[in-house]
Amino acid sequence: MSEPAPRVVELSSPFARFAGRLLVGLGHEVVLVEPPEGDETRREQGGDAFVHWHAGKRSVTVDLAAPDGTAQLRRLLRGADILLDGTEHGAEAAAEGLDQLVHVRVTPFGLVGPRSDWQGTDLVVAALGGMLAQVGEPDGPPLRLPENQAEQLAGVNAAIAALLGLRARRRGPGQLIDVSAQACVAAALEAGALAYLHEDRVPPRPGSVHPLVPHGLFRAADGHLGGGLGGSPRMWDALLDWLREEKADADLAEPRWQDPVERKKHQEHVFKVVQDFVGTRPKAEFARQAQARKLPWAAVDLPHELPDNPQLAARDFFTRVSTPEGERTDLGFPFAFPEGRRRTELVAPGPGDDQGLLDDPPRAARTAPAPDEPVRPALDGVRVLDLTWVLAGPYCTKILADHGAEVIKVESAGRPDPTRFAPFMHLSRGPHTDPNTNGYFNEVNRNKQSLALDTRTEEGVAVLRNLIAHCDVIVENFSSTVLTKLGLGYESLRTINPDIVYVSMSGMGHTGPRNGWVSYADTVSASSGLTGLTGWGPDDVVGVIYGHGDIVAGLQAALATIAALEHRAVMGRGQHIDLSQLEAIAAHMGTSLLRGTEVGPAGNTHPEWSPQGVYRSLGADRWLAVSVRDDTEWTALCEVIGRPELATDERTRTAEARRRESALVDGALGTWARTMSADAAAELLQACGVPAGAVQDGRELVEHDPQLRARGFYVRKEHTVAGAFLHEGVPITLTRTPGGVREPAPVLGADTDAVLRDVAGLSPERIQQLRADGVLK
């Protein structure tokens, strides 16, 4: 008999609500606890915020400040599996003694540390977490990613935390899990801090050009395109052939441009030639023609254009939400689950629609077994075959490895991972030629083993099949046909290992009319609506240049993997998670589709709060992020900046008035901020309860942030070739079964013999023969 769906009790907040939504998508029963006046999202954006974040949940109303409020909540929790707790002070009193409960606390800065009581908004956490420093023009102010990406990073990490807690509970009791939104952002910067850690370098904001790979944002005849020169000689040759055919190659046919180092050195010139070619063509037409040549380009679409995307439509991505006002179309979930079934119909509950849950006898709580000794990480005992490369896939398997999974990375010099071998992606203080010293690779592949195997050979595939039989999970982020061509499609995998969990992470997914499109993080972000909303206005789009889309896909794939392992524990069978990176990032676009054509780039502003922005502070390229959420905070801010009269001035007394008088408001706040260090200004404002924080870059995160230091976020490990260096830590702290950075990344092929001997069961003689035949390299 299968277990009932896990019950989640959600005490919501902006940093927790996405976790609840994701758990709805996984089939969990999520009970939203609302105050008597209803959750605040019912009044945000005309109710669209509630429709997006809370459709599919059940609703009870509880006055937690009332004498019997805690007792009511405790009755609900007695039969719950997960408490998703976004409250400022926590619900420990209601949860005390409920040993079966996985209590996930999601806060802006975590439960411990000198800033644990600081106020945080999406903008402020993005600033203090390092995200803002990576977006915008180098000579302009930092720019916020749209649709609350810092909040959403916290949300998906909280969902992962909840499932890790359930997994650990199979061997012991529940536990408290501490999720810091700031740490979630700091762990999701691609090379933002790594450049400092491995090259003593702080990259400037990149504008519209990627700092490592030859990609960027280009203007088309009717909008914008994401794309560039690609990441392989084939792509450069194909682009050059196209330019030649159209007589638009200028001097790029000269032999010097065959050298990728030369192209990178003079990238501005190369991009100008490409821009001249791109700029005369409509964006959608150019993208289709480029993809026909297997070139990674995509039109920059806005959220209201997403329903016209044939790939999303064919894969039934969108949800239909029933509301009292009628049916609405909203963004869907990041992957279909379980077993390829996607939730596409939801109901937005009314306040207290499920009030009877408070009076029902509590469900029989699952009895937690006695804890093991010694305590093991949540994914201990899970073996993962890692066929991923670059960022999205390795980021997924990094999360699994951090929490105890045995991850075997299959790689070879014959099919090199660019993050090991490509000079332009190599981050190290030494020569950019040693595949074992790249800080980029070594960050996302810590805690893993390396098997050097040439899968282009028949013998290599045979070894791979042998390994598959002994693994729980396979993760790959190749294009949709690569494994099928090797004879390792899902049906073949099931024949080898009926219980296998197979997670594919192609850009577009394995089905649909665009399943063969070539994609990078920037092209996926372009197609999802994220790039089109990142800017100061419709005519001033900056775009998302670093690998945020890859990181989101990696997080969602990790969530999918753990969910599939839990499903297998209950149902006794594995499944194929066909994750589309496009769908993963589109699912992070918040309420943008519900709000329709009114949505456009809005810089650092907030649709309801005022002021909210980033203000220049004392020092070179130093900035202060501030959010004022209500009139009380505005009054406090006016006192701090020495302008108390503005709190009662009719021109600035309300948020609506302050938006109208933005020049006056921003001028007063900006004049004050310019005379102070950003850290000192933030401390003064936070002392009065106003959310504020310095915009921190990689150096400041590593060297100066007191909160990350107190939490032990950066972890030093000694690599056998690269030496000792700091690693970005784990943003999820499980108090009973913690994960962590246990080992540095492996040297290429370091574990080949051990894996083939201990996992595949090959004899020393067989291993020696494979090496002699060139299969192991």
TrEMBL record:
Xref: Pfam families: CoA_transf_3
Top-level division of the source organism's lineage: Bacteria
UniProt region (Disordered), positions on chain: 346-375
Keywords from the UniProt entry: Transferase
InterPro entries: CoA-transferase_III_domain, CoA-Trfase_fam_III, CoA-Trfase_III_dom3_sf, CoA-Trfase_III_dom_1_sf
Gene Ontology MF terms: transferase activity
UniProt biased composition (Low complexity): 349-370
Signal peptide: none
Protein name per the record: CoA transferase
Species of the source: Streptomyces phaeochromogenes
Lineage, top ranks: Bacteria, Bacillati, Actinomycetota, Actinomycetes, Kitasatosporales
